Each structure stands twice: as C-alpha cells, then as structure tokens.
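Recap from last week: sequence in, structure out.
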Amino acid sequence: MAKSFYHFNPKTLTYEKVKISFKHLFKRVVWVFASGVAFALVFVWIGFYFVDSPKVKLLERENNELKTEVEYLDGRIDLMSEVLADIEDRDDNIYRSVFETDPVPREERYPLIAEDTRFDSLSRSDANKLLKSANKKADQLMVRLAAQSRSLDTLARLAGSKADMLAAIPAIRPLKNMYTITSGFGKRYHPVLKTLRNHTGVDIAAPKGTPIYATADGIVSRENPGSGYGTCVLINHGYSYQTLYAHMSKAAVRPGQKVKRGQLVGYVGSTGMSSGSHLHYEVLKNGQHVNPIYYFFIDITPEEYNSLLESSKKINQALS
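Predicted structure tokens:
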C-alpha cells in the first residue's frame, strides 16, 4: 500500500493530504542525484590531490630510488672521465714522447656527438634531465675509451719494436777520440766558394785513413748524394733517420749492405769539394738536416760533450 504524505495547515489547524505531482517528484529525484554526483566528485578530488593511494606512494618511492641511482651513476661517470683524462694526458705527454710519436688528435678523442632525442617525449623532471646528461656523458666516454684503446694498441706495437728504434737512432761519435768540431752546423763560410752558406753537417778534422764508424744500425743506401761529397756513404736507419759520411778516402761497405752501430764504414780523406783531410758528417730526420751535435750521447762524458758543443758554435770556414 502506497504511503500518503500529510502537512499541517496552520490556518485550518488540520492535517491535509499532500498531493505529489510527477513533475515535483522528478525534480526531487534529479536534485538528489545531482547532489550525490557533486559529493562524489568532491570526494574523488580530495582523495586524488590530498590522499596518496598505495600505488602512487609506490611510484613515488620508485621514482626517488631511480633519481638516487641516476645521480650515483652520473657521479661515477664523472670519476671515470677524470681517470681517463689523466691516462690521456700521460699518453700524449709521456708515453708518446718516449716513442717520438704525435699525440692523438683532439677531434678523434672528443668528436661531436649528435644530440640524443630518445628522452624528449618524457616529462622535464629532474630525474629525466639527469638521465639525459648521464647518457650523453656515457656516449662521450665510450668514444674516448675507444680512441684510447687504439692509442694503447699503437704504443704496444711501438714498444715491441723499441729496441730496433733505439738502435736506429744515431747516438755515438763517428770517429773515436773525437773531442772538437772543426766546423759546426749552420751558417759557415764555404772553403771553395768563399761565401756564407748553410752548412748541413759538422766537419771533423782527422788524418787521412782514420777509421769512420756507423753511428746506428741501418742499410747502406744506393742513393748518390752528389759529386761534391766525394767518396761517401749514406745509411738509411729506418724510423725516419739517415746519416751521411762524406769526403772519405775509401769506403769500407757497399750499397745494400746491413751495418751495425760501431761498424767500420770507411776512412777519412779529402775527396770532392774539400780543402783538407776531414769527415763531413750529417744527420737527417724525416729528410731534414738536423744538428749532429745533439746525437752524441752514448759514448761521451758531459765534459767531452760540452767541449764539442762549444767548438761547434764558432762561425768559421768549413772544410767542405
């Protein structure tokens, strides 16, 4: 049985039956529904913004842990980069100087790395920025490590041939008991032309027939340096070194012959454009004449070297 609703009429002092229309009933239902929806929305909003769910709390904790790990990784990459920089510095300034090789080009060690866009779609959070930075540093570190690995491979090969290279460097005096330089390297007066010209070696006065010795291991060249040198021997030592022994009275070796440091190669004379018995000795590095005085360091005392150095500085007339 349907319930009836009454209301008190103060005018008649009686209860009168309320007649509820469909329209009025519909409005009340709509109002109750709207109030419920509004309350639910307010509840959801409060819960979303002010009350963290277990899942949100888990995600926040994981995000904080991730940020800590990325910061730790970034710090380790910085430390490895510092260690690698020290190895690169020693490679360029110590190891390669020992083997007389050029440093690794900077553009090979520090190439331009393209901008990484893998994380551009992610939010600009601190963790994301750290991740992008760490990723870029890791790419650069890998390139530098690859370049350094190649450099160390090169040095390993050089170390394997170090003994051969040392034997190829002119390092002794071409004449025994040689204590003075008659005419040094640089501008000197030509004995025949009487003009100040570039003297490409050193002249060492000695009696005719004085033995001349190879200053490093090598192979006697078949190349003819020129008639002005008279009887001469040119030795290719490898590793970009050559030595020339000129104006000899007689050669003791033949073209193509292998020679050892200290081996007899000829005898002092005065052949070619020469004004007296002497040895004209030259050292070439990469095809360029260098001062031979700087290559006397094995069979000599400091006092003897200073004597040779002082005598080589005099600007006088060369013997050839």
